[in-house]
Amino acid sequence: MTPAIRRFPDLPALTEAALAAVARIAREAVAARGVFTIALSGGSTPMPLYAAMAGRGFGAPFASTVFFFGDERVVPVGDRRSNFGAIAPVLFTPSPIPVGNIHPMPVEVRPLELAAATYEDEVREVLGGGADVSGALPRLDLVLLGMGPDGHTASLFPDRPALGETRRLVVAMEPPTTVEPRVARLTFTLPLLNAARNVLFLVGAKGKEEPLAAALHGPPDPHVPASLVRPTDGGLEWLIGEG
């Protein structure tokens, strides 16, 4: 699939475009299925989007929206490195979202392989889908993703074995060596990402020019995991901030 690529001069302009894209997808999902399912991304770039979603709405009722996380650092929720811990006060606390509609990754479960399996079971229970990639995969309406300066997305890092995963939808990852913070992660795998009805990348270009060019214009390359996200039967859009 050829991605739709849109470039913006700064983060506020990117945020406005992202909010419009989320609202469009949310309205379509609620009209078609009565619910909007979304996987959130960590990092600083989507935080203004989450604040806008909480304050201005995003095309779907809060009660009809189900939130997942595409990846998580294995740290306590109160740790500043936690994706959930960073997002919750911006998006969840100000909004009348039913608690049961929010599905954080179970970072407290050990071993981490069990945590990954537990979250996969939760995804399947909520979204449906077959037992493996030979059957129908769970399909999120929207997955939000970013990209790191090493080309990683979610917590799928360059040249790691998880990039070849075909059966598991969530896996545990050892701490990365290419970016901070160097803590263990839980992450969606490519089968789940590529089953999504829509994938929206929000990326600041500064310092990421080389992997960004490879992801946008090159062939799928395990050195640049973001290039491997190509939905099988869904939309793929990159919103890129140049400032």
Automatic annotation (TrEMBL):
Pfam families: Glucosamine_iso (PF01182)
CDD domains, per database record: 6PGL (cd01400)
GO molecular function, one term: 6-phosphogluconolactonase activity
Signal sequence region: none
Organism domain of life: Bacteria
GO biological process: carbohydrate metabolic process; pentose-phosphate shunt
Domain named Glucosamine/galactosamine-6-phosphate isomerase: residues: 12-238
Keyword Oxidoreductase: no
Keywords assigned: Hydrolase
Record pathway: Carbohydrate degradation; pentose phosphate pathway; D-ribulose 5-phosphate from D-glucose 6-phosphate (oxidative stage): step 2/3
Similarity comment: Belongs to the glucosamine/galactosamine-6-phosphate isomerase family. 6-phosphogluconolactonase subfamily.
Matches recorded under PANTHER family: 6-PHOSPHOGLUCONOLACTONASE
Primary role: Hydrolysis of 6-phosphogluconolactone to 6-phosphogluconate.
Protein name per Swiss-Prot or TrEMBL: 6-phosphogluconolactonase
